[in-house]
Amino acid sequence: MPFLQVLAETSPRFLYQLFSHILPRARREILHWTDSALAIPDAQLRRQALASLCDKRFHADGGCVYAALAPSGPADLVRLIVALQTISDYLDNLCDRTGEWDEDRFTALHQAMRDAVVLGAPVRAYYSQREDDGGYLQALVRTCQREIERLPGYHVAQHHIVWLVNRYCELQQYKHINPNLRRQRLMDWFSQHQRRYPEVHWWEFGAAAGSTLGVFALFAAAQRPITKATAQSLFDSYFPWVCGLHILLDYWIDLAEDDEHGDFNFVACYPSWPEAYARLRRFVRESHQSTRRIGGRLHQHIVCGLLAMYLSDAKARQNPVVRPLRRLILLSGPRTWMFYGACQLYRRVR
């Protein structure tokens, strides 16, 4: 499609909606949860909640792209996406930043994310050590539950959403245990799913499980009544390819930082850099093909936007191992070029 035709048909309208309506609303939601986090009595919990809201805000902003692209409906997608992503980022900090390797605690904490996407699930105590967050995590769970109840298609999408959230929570539980046990636990976990996903390595499955994009895509689709076939095709398109692309890009740009701090990194699991480059190109190719099959520009925008967002990061320019990946922007066409420019603007105004 010619460049000017792309501009005229889709991208400017989407970018205007995103920057003028969606991101300001996402910011208001983040400020709301920041006010709530400031009132958390426990100092450690308060510190991690505030850090996740500050340092990982772009995760919620990125998820809210679905609210800019999806048809409007009875649920507040911005509120739902920000709340679920805030749960994800907060729990990640609690698992990653407190120096603990307690798998039972990680499992109890992540029950909050599981409850958030199940209609009618009880809201319970999620801390195993009697910490007091003043009801912060429970409020996030209730907010998600209120919004999913308003999604007309949720009863059809819920099965896939719950599967994705369960895989996400399992990843977080296993990824944060004792480093001496982590790799084998992740490999054993993948062995339970390998027959269904024979085209990916165990660390690529783990990367795909770490993405919330499939959940957000199904939220967006559920703004209208949907068929089982539609929900299935969305799920199959996103997992493992689009979700895997998302998190592999995230790990690519964090390679140097993770190496410096001795943190686990999925990209470092590849036996060589040429194979790592080739596999990422495969994920890009499969993501483009799978989103074209399900139709509509929304999901094609997402793939282009992932490349633009991550490869516009300063870390992608600074690390000589990562720098060659920026060629993917040039190879991905005019829509990705436009999103790359928009991401540069976002980094200046955020």
Task: Summarize model confidence as the mean pLDDT.
Answer: 90
Strand content: under 5%
Class in CATH?
Answer: Mainly Alpha
Number of helices: 19
Radius of gyration: 19 Å
**H and E string:** HHHHHHHHHHHHHHHHHHH
Task: Give your account of this protein's structure.
It is a single chain. By secondary structure, the chain is an all-alpha fold. It has a single domain, classed as Farnesyl Diphosphate Synthase (Orthogonal Bundle), CATH 1.10.600. It contains 19 helices and no strands. It has helices spanning 3-9, 11-38, 43-55, 57-63, 65-69, 77-96, 103-116, 136-148, 154-175, 179-191, 202-209, 213-221, 228-253, 255-261, 273-294, 297-311, 314-318, 327-331, 334-349. The longest helix is centred in the N-terminal third of the chain and has 28 residues, at 11-38. The chain starts with a helix and ends with a helix.
Key features?
350 residues, disordered N terminus, 0% strand, mainly alpha, Farnesyl Diphosphate Synthase, 73% helix, 19 helices
Helices and strands in order, then pairings?
Elements: H1 3-9, H2 11-38, H3 43-55, H4 57-63, H5 65-69, H6 77-96, H7 103-116, H8 136-148, H9 154-175, H10 179-191, H11 202-209, H12 213-221, H13 228-253, H14 255-261, H15 273-294, H16 297-311, H17 314-318, H18 327-331, H19 334-349
